């Protein structure tokens, strides 16, 4: 009857989202008077999960699942849920988890609530708070199925340490024939990714060309942030499509989102609304982004950003 949590990892190392969903699962388990079991895929040191409330780890080490495969992962998690007698499964709201959660729901005849932002307000009926209408509102959703799947929004619940230790055991689920084979994966290295970033610095057409992107990268470097861009910028080929954020790009739920030279089209705002603090730098005081911003600077980015970088460097030098 333990709460089962799927903890995502990359090249054997747990992602921040894994620690956040483990923290969430611990809270749910405490509400239900039970324990937390985590399932991992080709992860290295699983003992760290004990620091975030996990009591037991099911370690799946399978060469077929070295790269993410929604069908294969869903089958393994479903087997674990059945073996553990699990009634609540916690996943993140990452792209991978949103891929596998519907498949998992079908396998277990489970209800699935995505984009959950708080611990359940009730476990009977099991009720969670979710974002709705591209993060413009919230709704309270009751999951009435016997097995329930909860997708936790990034940075919504937070990472919470719990003193404890986790036992580990090997788990070898039956993996069906996988219809897709990954030949290779190319990833940007040495940079903070948008998915894991606490801070995101994003640029738009107001930067006038790719040759001016150096100051975006410098600001991001000073802040330890990821770089991003608006759709027109990626469409023009100034930046790779992997940096495009918005409703039709990657969603961003950063603690701090800095938009430079971005007017704030509705599709862009829909993709970054989950960010906690939004800062806008734009020459146009009527830019739609200012209505959504927590802080706004009306000014030329080519004057404002270098001064901001200078002040941040001075501040960091004093620490």
Q: How would you sum up this structure, described in words?
A:
With 319 residues, the protein is of the alpha/beta class. The chain has two domains: 3-170, Rossmann fold (3-Layer(aba) Sandwich), CATH 3.40.50; 199-317, 3-Layer(aba) Sandwich (Rossmann fold). The chain is 28% helix and 25% strand. It is built from eight helices and 17 strands. The strands form four sheets. The chain has a seven-stranded parallel beta sheet with strand order 7-11-6-1-4-5-12, sandwiched between helices. A five-stranded parallel beta sheet has the order 14-13-15-16-17. A three-stranded antiparallel beta sheet has the order 8-9-10, with helices on one face.
